[in-house]
Structures are given as C-alpha cells and as structure tokens.
Design brief:
Elements (H helix, E strand, L loop, with lengths): L6 E5 L6 H11 L3 E3 L3 E2 L14 E2 L2 H9 L3 E8 L2 E6 H9 L3 E5 L2 H11 L3 E7 L3 H11 L4 H15 L7 E4 L3 H17 L1
Parallel strand pairs: 1-7, 1-8, 2-7, 3-4, 8-9
Antiparallel strand pairs: 3-6, 5-6
Helix pairs in contact: 5-6
The protein binds guanosine-5'-monophosphate.
Guanosine-5'-monophosphate binds next to strand 5 and strand 6.
C-alpha cells in the first residue's frame, strides 16, 4: 500500500449525508486523517482552535496568503476566508497518513488540479433534488427560505459533478458507504 503524499477530497451539496459518510470512513480506515482548514472567521459555540479550524485573524490569514503558505484558499462568505495550509498536509503526510478533505466544489477542484493523480476527488450526490429538499425539511434546522437557498446552491454544485473523479449517489447510507470504502481502498492500494 502506498499512502505517500495522497489526498482524498469529498464534496457534496448540503444535506447529502457527506459528514456522516466521512466520519464513518475515518473510523474504518486508520490511514485516513482529516484536514483541518484555517479560517478568518471567529469561533462559534464550542469550537476550539486546532480542532474544528485553525482560527486566524484577518491580518494573519492575509500574511500567510502573501507568504504562499496555502495550498488553496477562498473567500467563501463575504469577509470570511477559508483555506488549507501546506503545513497541514505536511503534518498529516509526515505520519504516513492520507489527507481527507471535506470542502466545497471550487476548493475540491482547485486541490485536484494542484495534486493530479495524488488526489482522488469524490462527489456525493443526493438521489434527487426533491429528496434533498425533503431531507433538509426533515432535518428542521433551516427556515423555508434557507432551504430553498440551499436547494438552489445544490443545483449549481451538481453542475460541477462531471469534473470529479468519481460520483456516488447517497440513496441508502450503507450502500453508499460500502461503495466509497471500496473506491478509497483501491486508490490507497495504487
Ligand atoms: P462554516 O459553516 O464552517 O463557517 O463554513 C463552512 C464553509 O467553508 C463550507 O462551505 C466549506 O466547504 C468551506 N470551507 C471549509 N474549509 C475550507 C477550505 O479549506 N477551503 C475552502 N475553499 N473552503 C472551505
């Protein structure tokens, strides 16, 4: 098995079950380690520096961009930047682990472009837009307006699906997980 310098990137519209799949996969495949992003936004609730994110001031974030310390970064929300530090990749690779990203489509495609065959990009699809809307309604964390915004965003994100190495439809969680486990294991064997 060769884990040297490899990364696996997951992207999916919100409500697709991506976090559940990634968490289960991380428990099952000990060679995988989650990449902690840096952000210029402030911590929310119980978030801790170095756990959910590396929290940087706007000034510090900018300085690190100028020093070329990021593999990729984006202003995801106006005034809030998010990105992956090269030092985070080194931290994980040094342990002989494979880096796992949970990132938006644009960030995913940027990383894939940078790392080529060392990267596997996986797009997780909802069974349909209607089902995605039902799941977001069932989750009951958003207002009707916010749900429609997420659905519209999902439609845009699904447009990027052809640019990913593989696509897995999350209709049934266990089936999707088994499929992803096989795809990732094959990639680690290469
Ligand atoms: P949050 O809700 O945590 O403030 O924002 C999460 C958003 O930032 C999501 O859209 C997520 O995909 C994006 N994000 C998190 N980390 C990164 C990163 O390292 N690079 C990029 N480009 N986007 C990120």
């Amino acid at each position: 098995m060769s884990c040297q310098g490899k990364v696996v990137i997951f992207s999916a519209p919100s409500g697709t079950g991506k976090s559940t799949i990634i968490n289960r996969l991380l428990q099952e495949l000990p060679d995988l380690e989650f990449s902690i992003s840096a952000t210029s936004r402030s911590p929310r609730g119980t978030e801790r520096d170095g756990v959910e994110y590396y929290f940087l001031s706007e000034q510090e974030f900018k300085k690190r961009v100028e020093n070329g310390e990021f593999l990729e970064w984006e202003e995801v929300y106006s005034g809030s930047c998010y990105g992956t530090l090269n030092s985070e990749l080194r931290r994980i690779w040094t342990k002989g682990h494979v880096v796992v990203f949970d990132i938006d489509v644009q960030g995913a495609l940027n990383i894939k472009n940078r790392l080529g065959a060392k990267a596997l990009s996986v797009f997780i699809m909802p069974p349909s837009i209607e089902e995605l809307r039902r799941r977001l309604v069932r989750r009951a964390t958003d207002t009707a307006e916010a749900i429609e915004k997420r659905v519209a965003k999902a439609e845009t994100e699904i447009g990027f699906q052809p640019y990913f190495d593989v696509t897995v439809v999350n209709d049934d969680l266990d089936t999707a997980l088994a499929e992803i486990r096989k795809i990732v294991s094959d990639f680690l064997e290469k």
